[in-house]
Every structure is written in structure tokens, then in C-alpha cells.
Amino acid sequence: MFNLNTLVQKAQSLIDPSAPTSKPSDVHPSKAALFRLQFRLPDSQSPLHEITAEFSFPTASAARASSQGTDKRSNSSDHSAAYVGKLHLSEAFLCFSSHPTSFHPSASLSSSTAFNGQTHGTGPAGNGFTLPLVAIRRVERLQTQNALFALSLTTSNGFITPSSNPTANPTQKFTVQLAGSRQACERFCDGLKRGLREATKDAGNLKAIVSHCYSEYLLGDKAFKGVEKPDAPRKNPPDVGLGLLFGYPGDAKKLRDKSKMRLWGEYLRDNGRNLTLIRQPTFTRLLRVGLPNRLRGELWELTSGSLFLRLQQPNLYTDTLAKFDGRESLAIDEIEKDLNRSLPEYAGFQSDEGIGRLRRVLTAYSWMNEEVGYCQAMNIVVAAILM
Q1: Kindly report the CA angle at 134 between 128 and 135, in degrees rounded to 5?
Q2: For the whole model, what pTM was predicted?
């Protein structure tokens, strides 16, 4: 049978023998690659176990009532939202999605014969979570009549930066009921136990990353609904970009930044934040409404998966700058030419502070990816991110 793609590849190889040709893995990507794309995980992760499960998360009113000791167990359906989907375990992450996964269940770790699902490897979709094992504080086996294996998970949400207001950081707990044979459930639980034991060594990384997230500052002693209490202790907010120093572009009233901050603050309070965020239907709707300026960087990192990369190597940026300090390259020469051409109308890039940040980010990337180094317009992209 005539195959046009094969003919085109052969013609390209004759014209330019050094040109890379598509690999079989590009046509049939591995199950591990699709798994990482599905949940935006680092390249070190691969699917170890997967099982059908029901994920139950208490509603906002139930969580607050429980934290205040006024939970009335009248009707369980009124107190929690439940989703059925696939629960996945990798070396360092526990992932759940109510949407079908983007790899075929029968695929091997080396290749996948077809895409299966609505996300097609483009990132998390549906309701669920991508939870680092180091962020799980406690796992308890529940005694239930409906499920052989029901697990109650408590995350580190609210524990890392404790507040003097006990209602500001309620304990985040949810339930996962495994649906499968006893052997399959036991294998999954054994793998989870091993992963949790290994993850304890990353506790320092978790604390370092979370302490720089604006959501921790927002939901600490400050208050709820984006309104600061006058008697609350003042804390310095984490560095979330040049906007804190020089102002954010655009009209804040037209952009409704305060309204967005209030809506996002309520969602993060009720559904976890940063590394412990739970995706519910409201999450997608809020993304369409827009991101408040001070949470933009954190939510970009979370949804793209770069926050998980930083969790593994929190000092990579500073270590790279220190390692190559004082060294020259062609990329650095080109960077210096473009620094003062980067959004010069913005006050932040008319200052030494803004230019210094832009220089450091571009320089670090040029050393991390020496094959690309630097090319024009990268300064504009980085300048927009730094704001």
C-alpha cells in the first residue's frame, strides 16, 4: 500500500542526510510518555499502577462544619462530591482524573497503538488531582461495607505555613475507594506505601517551594474573600514578579482583578492550593474568567507542570547561575544587545532591577539549553512572564 509519509521522509533524507527523521515513538508514543503528558509530570515518572476508583471530596460547607466540630451526618450526598475515574501511581505522584486517560489501557511502556480519550495527551482534564506523594501527610484504611479498600488521605495543605486562625487552614482530607480485585488493590496499596516512604526525603523541597507560593500568603493570617483584616499580623508577600514593585499592566478595574482574586481565594481555600489543588468543575470555569495578577505565575506553573519540576530541583536556577558565573558565550553577547529592547514602555524594564532579572533568566536558560542558547524574541517572552 502506497505510503506518502514514507516517501516524503525518504526524499528529505536524500536532500539533507543530516535532517532528523521521525521516530517510531513519534507515531506510537510510549504509554509512559502519554502518561506524563496527561498529568504534566517530569520525565522521571512512569505509570507503575493504575486502578478504577471513586474519589470523594467534602464540599466547602461540610469541610468548614467539620473543622468547627459542627458536622451533622444527615445525608452523606450533601456533604461530598464524588467522581469515578482512574487512579494512577508513579514513582513520586498520585494522579486521578474522571476523564478517560490518553493512552490505551493495553498499551505497553514502550509503545501505544492508539490514543484513547478526550485529552489526547494535552494535559490534565476532568475532575481530579495531580498530587506529589511528599504532600500526603497521612493515609488511613477505612472500614466500609461498599468497598474492600477505601483510603482516607490527608494532605499537607495548611500544615506547612500554620496560621493563628484555625479556620483559615482547615485540614484537607478526601476519600478514595478502589474498585478492583483484592490482589489488584493490595498491589496498588503496597506501591503507594513504598512511594510514601521514599517521598519523605523530599520534605525539605516541599517546604521551600510552598513558602514561595502566593496562595500560602493569601490564605494565611490575612483573611478570607481577598479582604485584609486590620488587626492581622503583617507579613511580607513572596516575590511574584515585577508587578508588585512597578505595578501590573492594564487597568485593574477593567480587568476586575479584585473580583478574580476573591473568587480564586475562595476556591483555593475550599479545594486546596498549589501542590495540593483539587480540580473540580469550578476550576475550569475560573480559568476562563481569568487569573488575578498575583496568582498568575503560580497557576501557570501548576497547570503546565513546571511546579513539579521545581519540586524535584528547587535550586536548579540559582545553582546554574553560580556554576556559569563569569563565563562568556555568543548567546550572552546577543542577550546583552536585546535587554534594553524588551518592553521598554514598562517601568520595570527601565530599572536595574527589571533588567537584572531578565538577564539572569535568559542567561540561565542559555546554559541549560546550549543547543538553542538564545534567539531573538525570547527576551519579549521572558519579559512578559516576569511581569
Answers
A1: 50
A2: 0.81
Question: From the CB of residue 319, how many other CB atoms can be counted at a distance below 10 Å?
Answer: 12
Helices 352-368 and 330-338 sit at what angle, rounded to 10 degrees?
150
Model confidence over 83-106: pLDDT tens digits? 899 999 999 999 998 876 656 656
Q: How far apart are alpha carbons 218 and 227 in whole angstroms?
A: 10
Mean pLDDT over the full length of the chain: 81
CA atoms within a 13 Å half-sphere pointing along the CA-CB vector of 358: 29
Instruction: Using the predicted structure, report yes or no on whether residue 232 has a pLDDT greater than 70.
Output: no
- Which of 96, 109, 93 shows the shortest CA–CA distance to 29? 109
pLDDT over threshold 80, residue 345: yes
Cα dihedral: 82, 152, 64, 297 (round 10):
-80
Site of grid cell 486521578: 96
Q: What are phi and psi of 29, to 5 degrees?
A: -60, 155
Four-residue CA torsion sign, 198, 92, 80, 277: positive
- Strand 49-58 and strand 173-179: the pairing is antiparallel
Q: Are the C-beta atoms of 387 and 367 separated by less than 8 Å? A: no
Three-class HEC string of the chain: CCCHHHHHHHHHHHHCCCCCCCCHHHHCCCHHHHHHHHHCCCCCCCCCEEEEEEEEEECHHHHHHHHCCCCCCCCHHHCEEEEEEEEEECCCEEEEECCCCCCCCCCCCCCCCCCCCCCCCCCCCCCEEEEEHHHEEEEEEECCCCCCEEEEEEECCCCCCCCCCCCCCCCCEEEEEEECCHHHHHHHHHHHHHHHHHHHHHHHHHHHHHCCCHHHHHHHHHCCCCCCCCCCCCCCCCCCCCHHHHCCCCCHHHHCHHHHHHHHHHHHHHHCCHHHCEECHHHHHHHHHCCCHHHHHHHHHHHHCHHHHHHHCCCHHHHHHHHCCCCCCHHHHHHHHHHHHCCCCCHHHHCHHHHHHHHHHHHHHHHHCCCCCCCCCHHHHHHHHHC
Q: What is the maximum span of the chain, computed from C-alpha positions, in angstroms?
A: 77
